[in-house]
Write a structure and sequence with these properties.
The chain has helices at residues 2-18, 22-34, 38-51, 56-71, 76-96, 101-115, 120-140, 145-160, 163-172, 183-196, 201-213, 217-229, 237-250. The chain is an all-alpha fold. The protein has a domain at 194-251. The relative contact order is 0.07.
């Protein structure tokens, strides 16, 4: 009996030694994120959140990785599931720490991805909260590159609607804030995002597309060329580089 108790203690002790804390899983997730292993990063962030549901960092980072994977998932069902997962983690993060910008950014990003597959009516509903979350984020951190990017693209996507669609949105679908969108703000926010994170490929890509839309071909060409020069540091950067090649060919 005594031997059994000793053996049990040893086994339990070994198990405890190998059980990783939330902080350890976050560190491993950060390592995988830096290595552009989004699947591995998500797994560790989710395990961190399971180990400590009060971990704000685990929640917003799990949201980030879920959306990264979902952004270019080939199966629509899997993509929607990942965006839903990203939104759930983002809202948990926001509930845990509403005073930090990352939670607001995570919600705005998750909703922006989800809205791409929604009807026009639902997109307007999403657009209202996306803008609200991004602006709250910028009140907390005026130089948050992600939220500057969200606001730049919010203005651009509204302006890319035809004038009739914008009129319907403003007057019949409760989207009065659509009237605040303009190309000048799209350019301003996207240029600010690039200034805040000059090595982030996606900022240059989307700024280039905004420049192209406002007729600044030279500016667009410079941004697309910069996308091709910069090293890939994000899991979706190879996709952005291919997109930039196509955009350059179209100028």
């Amino acid at each position: 009996m005594r031997f059994t108790c000793i053996l049990t203690s040893i086994l339990l002790g070994t198990s405890a030694l190998h059980a990783q804390t939330a902080a350890e899983h976050i560190a491993l997730g950060d390592r995988d994120y830096a290595a552009m292993n989004a699947v591995g990063a998500l797994s560790h962030y989710e395990q961190a959140y399971q180990a400590d549901p009060s971990s704000y960092e685990a929640a917003w980072k799990a949201s980030r990785s879920a959306i990264d994977i979902g952004s270019y998932a080939t199966e629509l069902q899997r993509q929607n599931m990942l965006f839903s997962t990203g939104e759930q983690y983002a809202r948990r993060a926001l509930a845990l720490n509403p005073g930090d910008p990352e939670g607001h950014f995570s919600v705005a990003r998750a909703l922006g991805k989800t809205a791409l597959h929604e009807s026009r009516t639902n997109r307007i509903k999403y657009a209202t909260e996306i803008r609200s979350q991004a602006l709250t984020c910028l009140k907390l951190n005026p130089k948050h590159a992600g939220c500057l990017h969200v606001m730049g693209m919010w203005n651009a996507e509204v302006m890319r609607l035809n004038s009739f669609a914008r009129m319907v949105a403003r007057n019949f679908l409760g989207g009065q804030i659509f009237g605040t969108a303009n190309w000048k703000e799209a350019v301003r926010y996207m240029e600010a995002a690039v200034a805040a994170e000059p090595d982030r490929i996606v900022h240059h890509l989307d700024l280039g597309e905004v420049y192209r839309d406002v007729g600044n071909s030279a500016g667009a060409k410079a941004e697309f060329e910069q996308v091709l020069r910069l090293p890939a540091t994000d899991v979706n950067d190879p996709v952005y580089k291919n997109q930039a090649k196509g955009d350059l060919a179209s100028i």
